[in-house]
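Please decode residue identities from the backbone states below.
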């Protein structure tokens, strides 16, 4: 079982159809026709990432792509001594997935990119808490792990994010047979390995369990913010049950109201 492959597969499966569209919009793209963006404008994801990282000033402005992402990269880079220290290798794969041009087989790269994106979201939200630049610890996934302990922390964080995403899918109640078939079909489209898909399906079959997720993040506001962001990216948040779930989750994670509001804006979810 590869937790990064699973995380990437969940992101690419688009089990919440609106989440990809919301993320596109939040990152500065308003067009509904992003799947052919690269072909229309001759854009290359590597050039886009170079622009966002300061290597090519022209890359980040094309079509407005990466407006929010560029701001987050700058803020996160300042926190870790420069953008060169950020773990952004998977962001190109994640952008490709969001734009419809990513390779479905690159699950691990997308998973790493998602962890980096969640880390940047958490840092941006926490730094803006109360309108002040508060000091926040570096969230897992923001920099490449340098030690075995840091690698373990990244794996544990990714496992927690996966658990939060799967748990959120259960917020509306029991998953019926039609929803189950839809999820299986979407996961197969990502070329997820059978072993990894079996893990996801087994977790979906388990009763909803939120408390252990909350307990695991109780000493880390950064991880709590990442969990909350991942949750909003996993579901539509368009039913009373889902709105109640994310509202209770934010409260249980002890996330301040302005942090919750900031994350919601970044993910494109209206206040609940």
């Amino acid at each position: 079982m590869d937790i990064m492959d699973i995380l990437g597969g969940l992101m690419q499966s688009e089990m919440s159809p609106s989440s990809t569209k919301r993320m596109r919009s939040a990152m500065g793209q308003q067009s509904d026709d992003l799947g052919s963006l690269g072909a229309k404008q001759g854009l290359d994801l590597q050039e886009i990432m170079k622009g966002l990282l300061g290597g090519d000033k022209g890359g980040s402005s094309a079509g407005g792509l990466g407006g929010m992402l560029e701001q987050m990269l700058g803020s996160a880079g300042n926190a870790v001594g420069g953008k060169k220290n950020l773990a952004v290798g998977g962001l190109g794969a994640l952008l490709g997935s969001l734009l419809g041009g990513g390779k479905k087989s690159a699950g691990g790269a997308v998973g790493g990119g998602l962890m980096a994106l969640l880390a940047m979201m958490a840092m941006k939200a926490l730094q803006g808490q109360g309108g002040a630049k508060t000091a926040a610890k570096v969230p897992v996934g923001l920099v490449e792990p340098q030690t075995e302990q840091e690698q373990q922390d990244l794996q544990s964080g990714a496992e927690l994010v996966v658990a939060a995403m799967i748990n959120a899918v259960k917020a509306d109640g029991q998953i019926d047979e039609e929803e189950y078939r839809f999820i299986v079909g979407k996961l197969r489209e990502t070329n997820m390995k059978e072993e990894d898909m079996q893990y996801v399906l087994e977790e979906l079959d388990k009763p909803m369990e939120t408390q252990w997720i909350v307990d695991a993040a109780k000493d880390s506001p950064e991880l709590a913010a990442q969990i909350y962001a991942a949750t909003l990216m996993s579901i539509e948040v368009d039913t009373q049950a889902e709105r109640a779930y994310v509202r209770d989750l934010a409260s249980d994670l002890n996330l301040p109201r302005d942090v919750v509001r900031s994350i919601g804006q970044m993910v494109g979810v209206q206040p609940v």
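Observation: The radius of gyration is 17 Å.
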